[in-house]
Design goal:
It comes from Sphingobium subterraneum. This is HTH DNA binding domain-containing protein. This protein has 332 residues and is mainly alpha-helical. It is built from 13 helices and 2 strands, in the order H-H-H-H-H-H-H-H-H-H-H-H-H-E-E. The relative contact order is 0.14.
């Protein structure tokens, strides 16, 4: 698989950008292309997608200034595939909702994207729609339209930074700006739900909020707007590359886990439920005995024994420290 069309080389770029930005641009393209390739070739794509999404959610939470452990999601909010929507973070209202644009988004496109129209979760109040300052959003959109002449990855850096500075939302402008820019950078495919760059910013511990304002703890030689924008572009491109590399490493870890699963299943009869149990756990945030029993059509007693067997084979691990309503995740 190749995605050269998506990240095509832009001619005459050297006349507009520094060599540092150009090098970061090339590294970002390469990292994202490798990640797209790994996703296309992964034998159990639902599992890789689930873990990419979990990493994106953790990174976007970090970008919002919130600290949490992904495993706490299941313990606090349950094992439903939609349990993450109970998080009280701004990104939750747009995460995994495909943006309605491929070019630079308009103000109307942003409003449609942020509109809360997801089905209500039983027993939980629906989140209030994000308040949007229309004047700021319209002003940002007029400036953003000028970025269409830039290479997509570089334009995405400017989109993220300019949306955060325009602050059309009372809270969450930084994370929502990063999400819309991330999806603009990767307009096609399933790699991103808005948080690949956030993964990279988190891993690089990039001071994104400080870079946006041009105020950092560093002793900088140049404090002009041009220098500020250059530093933002560099941090964003490096984050895209690091996010792509993180996906590749995740692919490698999950392939090792699949190899352990193959080994564990090789000595068992064909009717064994070990493989479907493990794959079920891999494709969701966590697994309980009740959920596994229902999905596999087994009794709770048989499912409990099967989960214990999977833990002994180092395929699953418990995340609830022996408490009631035990939950399990795959051991990667």
């Amino acid at each position: 698989m190749t995605i050269e069309v998506q990240f095509a080389v832009i001619p005459c770029m050297s006349g507009h950008f520094s060599s540092v930005v150009l090098n970061a641009y090339g590294a970002a393209r390469e990292g994202l292309a490798r990640a797209e390739e790994r996703l296309a070739l992964f034998p159990e794509p639902a599992i890789l997608i689930a873990h990419i999404r979990s990493a994106e959610q953790e990174a976007l939470g970090w970008l919002e200034g919130e600290s949490f452990i992904p495993e706490q999601l299941a313990m606090n909010y349950g094992y439903s595939p939609r349990a993450w929507r109970r998080w009280p973070f701004a990104f939750v209202q747009a995460f995994e909702r495909k943006p309605p644009w491929s070019a630079i988004p308009t103000a109307d496109a942003i409003r449609a994207w942020l509109k809360t129209d997801d089905p209500a979760i039983e027993g939980w109040p629906s989140p209030a729609p994000l308040a949007i300052a229309d004047t700021r959003l319209e002003g940002w959109a007029r400036q953003a339209a000028r970025l269409s002449a830039l290479p997509r990855l570089i334009a995405s850096a400017d989109l993220a930074a300019s949306f955060a500075r325009a602050a059309p939302l009372p809270h969450g402008s930084i994370v929502i700006g990063a999400m819309l820019a991330d999806r603009h950078a990767m307009a096609k495919g399933k790699l991103s739900a808005g948080g690949i760059a956030a993964i990279g910013l988190n891993q690089n511990r990039a001071p994104w909020r400080a870079l946006l304002t041009g105020v950092t703890d560093d002793d900088l030689d140049e404090l002009t707007t041009h220098a500020r924008d250059e530093r933002c572009r560099l941090a964003w491109l490096e984050a895209l590359g690091a996010g792509g590399t993180a996906v590749v490493r995740l692919d490698q870890r999950l392939r090792l886990w699949l190899a352990r699963l193959d080994t564990a299943c090789a000595s068992r009869r064909k009717s064994s439920h070990l493989r479907p149990l493990a794959l079920l756990a891999g494709a969701g945030p966590s697994l309980t005995v009740a959920r596994a029993a229902k999905a596999l059509g087994l009794s709770r007693q048989a499912t409990t024994r099967l989960i214990a067997e999977a833990c002994k084979a180092h395929l699953l691990r418990e995340i609830t420290q022996g408490n009631a309503f035990r939950r399990y995740v795959i051991a990667v």
